[in-house]
Amino acid sequence: MKVKGRNVLLTIMTLCLSLLFLFTVQPAHHTAYAADDSLQKIKDRGSIIMATSPDYPPYEFQVSKNGKSQVVGMDVDIMRQVAKDLGVKLVIKSMSYDSVLVAVETGKADVAMSGINPTAKRRQSVDFSKIYYNGGQSFLINKTDVGKYKDKAALAHKKIGAQTGTLQYNLAKTKIPGATVKGMDKNTDLVLALKTHKIDALGIETPSAEAYVKNDHDLAMIKSGYKLNKNETGSAMAFKKGSGTLAAAVNKSIDKIKAKHLTTQYLASAGKYMKVNTNNTSMVHYWTYFAKGIEYTLLISAISVIFGVLLGTILALMRFSKSKVLKAISVAYVEFVRGTPLMVQVMFVYFGVGIIVNLPALLSGIIAVSLNSGAYVEEIIRGGINSVDKGQTEASASLGLAKGDTMRFIILPQALKNIWPALGNEFVSLVKESSIVSIIGVTDLIYQLNIVRADTYRGVMPVFVAMCIYFVMTFILTRILNYFEGRMKHAR
Amino acid sequence: MQDKPLVEVKKLQKNYGDTEVLKEIDGTVMPGQVICVIGPSGSGKSTFLRCLNMLETPTAGQVLFEGKDTQKFSEEELTTLRERMGMVFQSFNLFPNLTVLDNLKLAPIRVKKMSDKDAEEKAMGLLKRVGLEEKANVYPNSLSGGQAQRVAIARALAMDPEMLLFDEPTSALDPEMVGEVLAVMKELAEDGMTMVVVTHEMGFAREVANEVWFMADGYILEKNKPNEMFEHPQNPRTKDFISKIINS
């Protein structure tokens, strides 16, 4: 028995590892033999794809224009000019800031532009254009602290906030003596932390700081006074390594834009959008944003539930099959999927599998969530099948019923009744956990929530609204599930 | 008895791990015969019965059905064997997710490919025969034990078997319900059904069986006509068992 168990374990390990091997080897080949056709590819396609994280006004942010939500800002205007010079159309792909560089590395986008500072570390993994804008560094502080923090020196030994992985973060760490640096993913969260006095100051680019001060009367800003190398502190566009021809063409456009001082004009028009936008920051005003978020969250959840249950059933039947291979595949799958975080799976499907087949973000999200849910549903169904009395199988066999019929007409219906509460739990958690797809730019409720936060400069209210919406959705779902549970009880 | 034997059991042996449940069983069931298997609990009666329709696979020895070795049966032949050899369980094992009527209809439709209409007609006929036609559309959990077992018998009969196996059909019933089930079984026997019945109902064995087999410790220690068995048991273990039953 012991030896047998070890064999199964070995098979599982081999399967997992070969899967890993397959995916790690593939991209290496890709880059090694790719010639620089970066510019030609874009011209052939007739469009340039820009990856951006639109929660960073005035660089890029989302507004609703004629009832349609749209990404605007200085970066977008610059890129539009670049596209015009290249003679191609501009396509914008929104995603979380963490994902924009990965998107160009994996070919999901041609250019990443999101107020990115071309640090030496980043230069190791992507190519950068020339600096197109140098906004300078500032600190946001609470207006009540204006007397206390007059300059950088006053911030020594204080708590400084900054976006994780940004230049501001590193500067605060290295250039302010004794400071505790607190990193978060989004500036909206950091501003909230500042206003609730969890941090004393927030390191941020000057144009963003100006935008916040203009829109929030509780905030004030001070100049950073850092002495910096211009080549590292400005914003630049990122390309996949080896995109020399594309970078050269883009740099030409940037030179032209700089010569004509177009950025000043772009910033001004971005400022106008922001004014329009912050006139009304009530949550009702943003209902279309939330509605779209609900739509996508429900869409992803509903499709994923269906495929999750289908996949889970198939995996469970494989688990009970006589074939050792099928059994091993099912076990390996479940172990592997349960042993890795959903977030990693979502990124793997979008970026990793994307190297072979280019899947849109929404589809990637649905696939990842379905594949994940399938593993959990398998475990639930397996438990359900085991919970059905053995006498049922025997009675069925004694009547000459085939194994498939026994499963279909006798075991599964009874199993379903037993596992319904657990399955309902899985559905509810699916609705909530599908929120992870926001990191690859699927406009689900969480993604929309962050857009609204960036847009209104209000930190808490949108979160509260989203919380209520999630609760209402899961509450209704629970009622529906209870209704069916009641009906099944009646049938017994 | 006429004809060839329907079932022959030769040197049947069954182990569960290291436990020998059946050590050496030989026996013959002729068409139309009613055989009651009695014996103390743990003697292997149920296991023996379940080896006949291959719910349990024998460890050694043979079970021949119409002269053919059941262990060499293909999936198809096994299905045919089970069609022809129905079984009734101690704990009824009705399908709780189906109505009484659907419990009866499922196998004829799926296995015999009977039309829904024919299956329903047949099922209603059988329910009438066991006196439960008014229960056709209820779910099994609302039936009493006696009713459930009568439905289980009707369900087995729906496949038109030539032979029925009963595994302690009345042991899980309240005493007042035993009679109604035995009455149905008696009627079946009178109609000429071949039956192997594992039971503790000595009255039934005495009245209905053609032959009584006494099992203990994985062997059949004595086979005899019921009167002989109960009046003049030969084996000391049989004597002991029967005296205990009668005096209890």
UniProtKB/TrEMBL annotation, chain B:
Chain ranges of the ABC transporter domain: 7-242
A Pfam entry, by short name: ABC_tran
Keyword annotations of the record: Amino-acid transport, ATP-binding, Cell membrane, Membrane, Nucleotide-binding, Transport
Stated name of the protein: Amino acid ABC transporter ATP-binding protein
CDD domains, A to Z: ABC_HisP_GlnQ (cd03262)
Record keyword Iron-sulfur present: no
Domain of life: Bacteria
Subcellular location field: Cell membrane
Organism, scientific name: Secundilactobacillus silagincola
GO molecular function: ABC-type amino acid transporter activity; ATP binding; ATP hydrolysis activity
UniProt xrefs under InterPro entries: AAA+_ATPase (IPR003593), ABC_ATPase_HisP-typ (IPR030679), ABC_transporter-like_ATP-bd (IPR003439), ABC_transporter-like_CS (IPR017871), MetN_ABC_transporter-like (IPR050086), P-loop_NTPase (IPR027417)
Family: Belongs to the ABC transporter superfamily.
Cellular component per GO, a single term: plasma membrane
Membrane topology value: Peripheral membrane protein
Signal sequence interval, chain numbering: none
